[in-house]
Amino acid sequence: MGELLVDGGRCQGHARCWALAPETFEIDEEGYAHVIPGRENSGDEPNVRKAIRNCPERAILERETNEASEKASEVSAS
Amino acid sequence: MLIARSRELGFAGEFIVIDSDPNAPYDRPPLSKQFLLGTGPVEPAEWWPEATPILNAKAIGLLTDKRTVLTDKLGEVAADAVVISTGAGSIRLPNGPAGVLTLRTAQDALALRSAVDAGASSAIIIGAGTIGAELASTLAQRGLAVTVVDLAPQPMQRFFSGHLGEEAKAWMHQAGVVTHFGVAVESIQKTDAQWTVRVSGLDLHADLAISAVGARPHTEWLTYSELDISNGVRCTADGKAMLTSGGIADGIFAIGDVSARQAEDGTFRRFESWTQAQRHGAALAEYFAGFDSSELEQAPYGWTEQFGRKVQVHGMLPPAGELVQVYAAEERNAALYRIGSAEEDVAWIGVNAPRQFSRASMGMSLLS
């Protein structure tokens, strides 16, 4: 089970993850989601599993730690 | 989703997946939108469990009591359980001539994109459901002159349960799409390089004719299975397939668009919905693993993206319910509508308002 990450390239702003697991995901005004800092390791929680399953864009990823931080910095830089 | 969720729950058994679509696995929702606007290939399915190969063959029959699928290329395939997930395919227009395009599979989308890339400058879309409306949006965005015709009085009649008709028409008109609602298609003919579609005595002409009149469940291969396939595979609420005799077919299940599930009122209902298909798969995995599943208790969720609008629907929209606009932000074409007043029957439609929509569908206040 790796670190949780919302792929900014895939997320289309459905905000389903926030509706299902607001303790782990936060969204901006357009609905685009990110993982709340400090909650990257909550991937085992039932609400988070449900959020991952219900994401229409399959944008919630679980990555190994190194890859996740690289990807996150890529996303924030773009 | 069935396989992914089963693995998550520790199931170590074998899945044999049979699909005749050479492009499988892929997601369909982008085909009418991003794919037609782009130049790349059909997006590969990163989510597909790598260790599970897909066998390219067509299922042509089911020996129900032996839980054995007959295929065209692989002979008989037997298993402890058979999950029918053959989805639905485009309805063909009666007497429609060859060359009318449609959109369901990756191959359909590729054919359509090739036709546009080859210089088509106009299109007539027959059917204004969500797929027809999304196609109208995408093709107008690509610069084609688009005409939409439908027997229904408004766009997305079923998706909106008859609501928001004037609004959805206005989105089309603002993008330059010409619409004819409440009209019947009388003939479709190809003359020289152009199509002529006659609706209610009016001849419409375009380079492309596209049929988007809906989908029908893929059950023809089950004709001799003794399963009840009167409208999709008739199932219990949790997906156990039913026989024409009324009993349950042991070890046979159906998920997704092909399944017609028993609702609380006793009727059988098919959902053509990405979200519902995912939930069917996850719930079945949980059933196989011996868990009580709450997947199917979630309210239906549907969405469409078109004409610069992200439209979301939560719950079952009552056709007769009163629609009340509870939020609007005109500068970004945003609105939130509530339908129904009894607490448990409230349904919501959001347009470019994901935050307000999500809060509302969670039963929270709209402030913040």
Descriptive account of the structure:
The complex is a heterodimer of chains A (78) and B (368). Chain A has 78 residues and is of the alpha+beta class. Chain A has a single domain, classed as Alpha-Beta Plaits. Helices cover 35% and strands 18% of the residues of chain A. Chain A has three helices and four strands. In chain A, the strands form two sheets. Chain A has a two-stranded antiparallel sheet. The longest helix of chain A is centred in the last third of the chain and has 13 residues. Chain A is globular. Chain A starts with a strand and ends with a helix. The model of chain A has no long low-confidence stretch (mean pLDDT 85). Chain B has 368 residues and is an alpha/beta fold. Chain B has three domains: 126 residues, FAD/NAD(P)-binding domain (3-Layer(bba) Sandwich); 122 residues, FAD/NAD(P)-binding domain; 55 residues, no CATH class. Helix content of chain B is 18%, strand content 32%. In chain B, the strands form eight sheets. Chain B has a five-stranded parallel beta sheet, covered by helices on one side. In chain B, helix 1 packs parallel to helix 6. Chain B is globular. Chain B starts with a helix and ends in a 7-residue tail after the last helix. The model of chain B has no long low-confidence stretch (mean pLDDT 94). At the A-B interface, helix 1 and helix 2 of A face helix 6, strand 22 and helix 7 of B.
